[in-house]
Amino acid sequence: MAENLLKGDGAMSKGIDFNKVKPSKRTLNEWMWAYALVAPTIIGLIILNIIPIFQTLYLSFFKSGDFGKGNVFVGLENYSKMISDPQVWNAVGNTLKYTIIVVPATVAIAMILAVLLNSKIKGKGVYRTIYFIPMVAAPAAITMVWKWLYNNQFGLINHILSKFGLGPVNWIDDPKVALISIAIIGIWSTVGYSMVLLIAGLQEIPKDYYEASSIDGATPVRQFFNVTLPLVSPTLFFVMVTSIIQAMQVFDVIYMMIDVTSPAYDKTVSLVYLFYNNSFKYADKGYGSAIVMLLLAIIMIITVLQMKAQKKWVNYM
């Protein structure tokens, strides 16, 4: 230690500035390869995410002209209109309700399935594939199948309920039930993806922890809460963040299930659905952009709160 300090003092006495020392050719080559490998991702993020955000922000200060041409600068008029628009805040409430229903249920079911399919059971590869299939299926096809299942007169779900002496339920057009019906589709279609991520996190846990806890006499339930949950918490945190962002952007299911003329429209319309209607049906892209910026702000606030809260419950090994 003393020798290193003496060398350091000698170098300083000679006036060597280590910050100005040129890196070797090998180091430069490694840097070049590192930047080359991450360049496609960075370019993709800039083109597909960063630039559209600024374009949308810019467009939110304009009002679309006739036939979608000749945008007129209106300043904060779109935001003022949005704040006083009850339909926007109704859509905010519906989006948050959908997220509150879907995310906890999806994470809980995915966690249970991940633990079960990570254990020694026969055919777990087949089960994993079955649960993951809805994630790769086309959303339009999924919605059409569920729309048939929810059919008020000929749907399979109501047919099963009739066998138990229960009356038919108007799953799609009943304002009290429609949002729950849509949430069920959201849970069913995303639980497989979350399950696969959690299985990957479970497989990273060293088996030594389970062996040590078994020697101490811990039951499987106690192992789950004292070993599995704390060690899989980083993956669980990632799943929660991405699930919330995905749920806040729900559109395709609602768009295909609920028409504007449906009695359940006001109880199910989301912010993205409202953005679509204003931008493309009513040809007011400026107001639609303002709605998207509101959604972006809400997602950012929720994500920041999650990042602060994760310090209290996420354990990084």
TrEMBL record:
PROSITE patterns: ABC_TM1. Pfam families: BPD_transp_1 (PF00528). Keywords: Cell membrane, Membrane, Sugar transport, Transmembrane, Transmembrane helix, Transport. The keyword Acetylation does not apply. GO terms for biological process: transmembrane transport. It comes from the Bacteria. It is a multi-pass membrane protein. GO terms for cellular component: plasma membrane. Residues 92-306 form the ABC transmembrane type-1 domain. Its main location: membrane. It is found in: Cell membrane. The chain crosses the membrane at residues 32-54, 98-117, 129-149, 177-202, 223-247, 287-307. PANTHER family: ABC TRANSPORTER PERMEASE PROTEIN, INNER MEMBRANE ABC TRANSPORTER PERMEASE PROTEIN YCJO. Belongs to the binding-protein-dependent transport system permease family. This is ABC transporter permease protein YesP. It comes from Clostridium neonatale. The lineage of its organism: Bacteria, Bacillati, Bacillota, Clostridia, Eubacteriales. The gene is yesP.
